[in-house]
Every structure is written in C-alpha cells, then in structure tokens.
Design brief:
Blueprint lengths: L5 H10 L26 E5 L2 E4 L4 E4 L2 H4 L8 H13 L9 H12 L5 E5 L2 H16 L3 E5 L6 H4 L10 H4 L2 E3 L5 H10 L4 E6 L11 H11 L3 E6 L11 H5 L5 E4 L10 E5 L1 H4 L15 H16 L2 H22 L6 E6 L2 E6 L7 H14 L2 E2 L3 E3 L6 H23 L3 H4 L13
Parallel strand pairs: 3-13, 5-6, 5-7, 7-8, 8-9
Antiparallel strand pairs: 1-2, 2-3, 4-10, 9-10, 11-12, 12-14
C-alpha cells in the first residue's frame, strides 16, 4: 500500500464492498486512476485547490469533470444556495426560481425560446432525442462525441452491455470534421433520421464550414440538429459554442458548469419544438430542485457580470502556449500534442512502440499526482486558476516531460512505474 495514498486506498477497498466500481462515475474510478500512485477520494475544495483524504493538496485541472467553472466554494454561489436552503429545497408545487433560470438561459442562449431542466447531461440529451423523434416521426439518430449513459447513445459504443440490439441499431456514429461520414449515414438511412446530435467542439477545432455543412445537410434531410453543449455551454461563450461559432442548432443541451458543480442540466430550443414536451414525457420529482436552480442563477449572473470567460481563455492560452514550447524544447512532438479550446484543452499521447499511449499516460499521471497536480490529461479551466497555479503546472511539465521521453527512448517505463498501466475505457474523441 502506498504511504502517500494509504487512506484513499483503504477507502477504495472499503467502497468496493458496497459500491460497484467503488464510486458513481467511471471517470472518477480506478479505471482512470492507477492503483498505488493515485488519490481516490477528495475531502474538500476551495478555489482551484482540493485536498484528498490523506491530506495531500492539489491544484485541480479536472474541476469535477468540467462542472466547476468558477472554482470550489465560490462565495456568490454559496450565498445563493444558503439563502434558498432557508426557504426550502423541494416543494409540492413549482418554485418561481424555475422561471428565473429559464428566462436567464433564454436571455443568453441563441436557440433558446423555452427551457426544461434535468439533473445530468444524460437527462437533457435523452430528452432532446425523444423530442426530436416525436417532432419528426423518425427513429434513427446520428451521433458525434459523448452524450451520456442512456441506451440510445451508449449502445453505439463498446460499453453496450445490457442495451437491446434493436436500440443500438438506431444510432449511427459519424466522424468529426468529416462531412462525408455523415452523408453516408443519411444515404444509408434516407428519411429515417430524426436528429444529428454532436458536441460542437471537443479535441479538434471545426474546419472551415464544417458545422454549417452539418446544419445544411441535416435540414436538407428533414432532421433536427442538436448541439450537446454539456461542456461547451456557458464556457466557450456566454451563449455557448453556438454563439461562439455562429451556428444556431434546433435544440441544445446544457449541464456541467451551468451551476458551478450543482446537479442540473437543461434542454433548450424554439417554442414550436419545445411545446411538444407538454406531451413527450420528461418528468421527475427533482427536476425543479431549488438549491441547484439557485446555484445556476448565481453562476449565470456572475458569468454576465464578471470577466469569467475572458479569464478562462486568457489563462488557458498561457497553458497551451507553455505546453507547446515545452514539447518543442524536449523534442517530444511524436509523443505529445495539445489541442482543443483554451478553456478545455487536451494533452494527446501517442503510441510509440513498444508502448501504448496508455502506458505513457499512466507514467504521466503518476508523476503529476506526486507533484500536487490533479489532472487526467485535459485542462478544464476555472475562474479561480491563478498565475501561480499555471506556473506550478508548467514547472511540473518541465520535470515530467523529460521523464516520459527518457522512459520511452530507453524503453524503461516499467522501471519508472510503481503501478500497473491503465487500460482504455472506450475511445470517444
């Protein structure tokens, strides 16, 4: 057992007796954190920093899987939640704050004329697909990116255990920045696609005209275009990636950072489509839970009031530029690259025989965790990331990149690793 992570490992062993996988989320589990060199449980967070249950402090660049936009324990969000808590959490009738948050989203998001709330991104994307199927009278959908755990999407991945084959056959995957891959789906299933749902951007920038071409092709074939803005919403721009790229979808879904970590999601779109949700069943007890709505209203107001997104972009650019310089300095272009948007950028590891990218990434994680950086390979920026945080991150890269280079060039990764290499969950991007 690792001395640095002893309490985490003891808690994981205990958790595995009562919780499958030891936690609720694959991306927070032992499938992503190598046993023996990783923390597994966080006790508290403040700003850009978190502390694990062993007392180790980290600068967090995961930020609750990009759900933390402002920083942990943001005072404005805390104040709003505490005030709402004194009034109540859930009631026998709707609370007016449902209307307040819906109106705020309509004010900010180009496609939004009406809004409904969920608790997870999967709620919103599944509602959007059900709504698109009801509106078009069609069953098939085309997908690009990650859209949650529900059958209609996850059945199209290798994590399809328990999903009926008939459901899986209705979902078809196309390739980002490859319009022909989407054309082939429409050709194979003419007049049968209800919707094209996609992340407007993740790792790669859209090539010129790609999003517009997707929209044109989708509408030409009588389908709806859905932007899954679970991550990009209220992060790329105040109105999301649709505002940033100037492409207004028929429907859009939001989650993650719309409430700085509180559980809420949303589906938004024009009135002529959204009114169908009066008949399309999308209803659950906690859809109007007031604490998360209070957190969302405080978060969205702060995004409008303060230069949150400007700082995210500025600080993210410092990281991207610094990483690019270090990759060149250490001549690691064949091993590592950086891509994505400054607010949500990715380190991309490449296979270099005899090693896979997962061997290299495991060593990377081992060394970064040991230096007090909580990171999985992406930089999920928050308003609380300071210049000092970025300096510490880049200094860690200055130390870790040469270790990775030496381990690969001299085929000595096993000598460096104090754990077993990770294995891929499933490839999305």
């Amino acid at each position: 057992m690792s001395e640095r992570y002893s309490k985490s490992e003891e808690m994981l062993e205990r958790a595995l007796q009562s919780i499958p996988l030891g936690t609720q989320t694959y991306s927070k589990s032992k499938t992503q954190y190598p046993l023996g060199v990783s923390p597994f449980y966080i006790e508290k967070g403040k700003g850009s920093h978190v502390w694990d249950i062993d007392g180790n402090e980290y600068i967090d660049f995961i930020n609750g899987l990009a759900s933390i936009t402002l920083g942990y324990n943001d005072p404005d969000v805390n104040k709003a939640v505490i005030e709402q808590l004194a009034k109540g959490v859930i009631f026998s009738l709707p609370h007016p704050i449902e209307v307040d948050v819906a109106e705020k989203i309509i004010e900010m998001v180009p496609c939004a004329e009406m809004v409904r709330f969920g608790k997870n991104g999967s709620d919103a994307t599944s509602a959007a697909i059900r709504l698109a199927r009801a509106y078009t009278g069609r069953d098939h959908v085309a997908v690009c990116g990650y859209h949650g755990w529900q059958d209609w999407y996850i059945g199209s991945t290798v994590r399809n255990l328990g999903v009926p084959l008939a459901t899986s056959k209705l979902t078809h995957t196309f390739i980002y920045n490859d319009i022909r891959s989407l054309e082939r789906i429409f050709s194979q299933w003419p007049k049968e696609l209800a919707a094209v749902i996609m992340e407007p951007m993740n790792i790669a920038e859209p090539i010129e005209g790609f999003l517009a071409n997707v929209q044109e092709l989708t509408h030409k074939n009588g389908a709806l275009l859905i932007f899954d803005e679970t991550v990009t919403g209220f992060r790329y721009a105040r109105g999301g990636a649709q505002e940033y790229f100037g492409i207004t979808p028929d429907l859009a879904t939001f989650g993650k950072g719309m409430a700085n970590g509180y559980p809420i999601s949303a589906i938004a779109g024009p009135t002529y489509i959204m009114t169908l949700l009066e008949d399309v069943f999308f209803s659950f007890t906690f859809g109007g839970e007031a604490l998360s709505l209070a957190a969302s209203l405080a978060t969205l107001n702060k995004l409008q009031r303060e230069p949150v997104l400007e700082k995210l972009r500025e600080q993210g650019m410092k990281i991207a530029n610094g990483v690019k310089q270090l990759i060149v300095k250490y001549e690691m272009e064949e091993m590592i690259s950086i891509s994505g948007h400054p607010e949500w950028s990715f380190l991309n590891f490449q296979d270099i025989k005899p090693y896979t990218q997962w061997d290299i990434k495991t060593l990377f994680l081992q060394e970064m965790f040991a230096r007090g950086l909580l990171i999985l390979g992406s930089h999920n920026m928050s308003y609380s990331h300071s210049n000092q945080d970025i300096d510490v991150l880049l200094q860690a890269y200055t130390e870790v990149f040469p270790i990775l280079k030496d381990a690969v060039q001299n085929q000595s990764i096993k000598g460096y690793l104090r754990c077993q290499p990770l294995e891929p969950l499933f490839k999305l991007r």
